[in-house]
Amino acid sequence: MHTLRPHLHLDRLGSVIAGLIGLALFASPFVTYRANRIVSGEGRMLFDALPPAGAVSTIAVVLGVALCAVLAHRPLVRLAAASLGLCVIFPAVGFSAGFVTPAGNSFARVSPAIGFWLLALDFALLAADALTRLRLGPWGRLVALSIAAGALTLLLLSGAWGDLSLMKEYANRADSFWREARQHLWLAFGSMLAACLVGLPLGLASHRVPALRAALLQGLSIVQTIPSIALFGILIAPLGFLAANVPLAAALGIRGIGAAPAFIALFLYSLLPVVANTMAGLSQVPADVTEAARGMGMSRRQRLVQIELPLALPVILAGIRIVLVQNLGLATIAALIGGGGFGTFVFQGIGQTAIDLVLLGAIPTVALSFAAAIILDAVIDLTRRGAHDRD
Question: Which of 362, 173, 177, 192 has its CA nearest to residue 277?
Fold first, then answer.
């Protein structure tokens, strides 16, 4: 007589994550120690980067998360395991800086190494997989983003990362950091807003006048093919001439280098997604809906404002999402021509061979792009539901 034996169902993604966790724990340094900020460093494994008790506890938690990734199938269990792992390794890397640095040494630098970043990526993938399986609605995703942002803020305010080289770089440049942050946001959001003010009417006109559509899209597509550095260079000569010959332009800060060419380049890159998605959104409005509105006696303007634009809004917002995420990344390049932004720290760090200075500019850029994508995705879902309700 045969007896039924229970079979373990191993999660495929979880198995990959567990393998990467093993690689991060036992084959990759957790932190990098350097005698000063620019010399080459030496890696320290996790069990050397923390006191024995802390190392054992951290490794036990990480292995427990790996086990959950492989065996647990309930999304809430996987999410709880990933959250626990993140809540352990992020403070741990901060505490390791104080443990590794010799007492009284103000020149030594300790940075997160590949082991830490790999663990953070593994746990983030596990959390993202759990959230996908939970199929959170737009408000749920916004709440999850708020919780993650709040946890990161508490970590930074707690001082747990105070001994890390990244935070020392920030402490030395706190004033300039927030100045460049404002410049970065102005370049990204300002160029997006300008593109919306120009691109939405152009998209509407192209939808109404087919003869304009092909020429406009072709011209904007050509702009997209120009590399950002080349476009900055193309704009230097005409803007420099304008500043030299038009006093008002010079008074407004328009010059051949600086924020002006960066803003104009980002604006030009932003036009195609806005124009194309405006046309696409208006084109997919059902003809019977517009016919019904016309039959109700609505004028052309009323149909546009009350029917067509609300129904096209999800597609238009998808284009704006593309523009914002794109501009937040491209604004980094503006530092090459004196435009400011987080790219200032990136290129300073590259020039000084200071990786933590590079991260000081790169991490906020990535975080802003990630947050913007989630927020606008949620807004798009909410407007899509509103459009379906109107149908």
Answer: 192
CA 294 vs. chain centroid, Å, equals 43
What homologous superfamily does CATH list for 174-390? MetI-like (1.10.3720.10)
Of 337, 289, 330, which is closest to residue 309 (Cα–Cα)?
Answer: 289
For 87-130, the pLDDT digits (tens) are 999 999 999 998 998 887 778 889 999 999 999 999 999 999 99
Residue partners of 281: CB distance under 8 A and separation at least 6: 311, 312, 313, 314, 315, 316
Give the tokens for residue 312: 């096209």
- State the pTM of this model: 0.88
CB proximity list for 133: less than 8 A, separation 6 or greater: 75, 78
Give start-end residues of each CATH 1.10.3720.10 domain in the chain. 174-390
For residue 386, how many C-alpha atoms fall within 13 Å in the half-sphere facing its CB? 17
Residue 237 identity (one-letter amino acid): A
**290 burial level (CB within 10 Å; 0-12, 13-18, 19+):** middle
Q: pLDDT grade, residue 1 (50/70/90)? A: very low
